Amino acid sequence: MLAYFGGRERGLAELTRLVKEYKANVAIAMAHWSCQQYNGIMRMMKDEVQGKLGVPFFMLNGDLLDARVASSEQMKSDLANFMSSVVGAKPLSS
């Protein structure tokens, strides 16, 4: 994602702009295990969104090519647990 926007600094700036513009209450990104470069960038994205903006960030583990990484049931459970942990933590934007 960050490379798409022209590198780390521009990518993080664009991510910050999007979170602010859409008044995001949470951010969710799939940690696609087959792409090691993307997974390395995920930590920078989490630090930016959660650390600097205070928006909860969730990395959903999975793999587009290998269902053994996480079953759909596991992914649903992980996502439900994340969402239940942030409900009430921050009022939803209207």
Give short descriptive properties of this protein.
two-stranded parallel sheet; 3 helices; 2 strands; 49% helix; 13% strand
Query: From the helix content, strand content and strand pairing, which structural class follows?
Result: alpha+beta
SSE string: HEHEH
Q: Given the structure, what is the number of helices?
A: 3
The low-confidence parts are: none
Distance between the amino and carboxyl termini: 27 Å
Q: Overall pLDDT, averaged?
A: 81
Radius of gyration: 14 Å
The percentage of residues in β strands lies in 5-15%
**Order of the strands making up the biggest sheet:** 1-2
Biggest beta sheet attributes: 2 strands, parallel
Helix content range of the residues, please?
40-55%
The 3D shape can be described as flat
Task: Find the count of extended strands (DSSP E, 2+ residues).
Answer: 2
Q: What does this protein look like?
A:
By secondary structure, this protein is of the alpha+beta class. The chain has a domain at 25-86. It is built from 3 helices and 2 strands; from the N terminus they run H-E-H-E-H. It has helices spanning 8-21, 36-52, 72-86, and strands at 27-32, 57-62. Strand 1 (27-32), helix 2 (36-52) and strand 2 (57-62) form a beta-alpha-beta unit. It is flat.
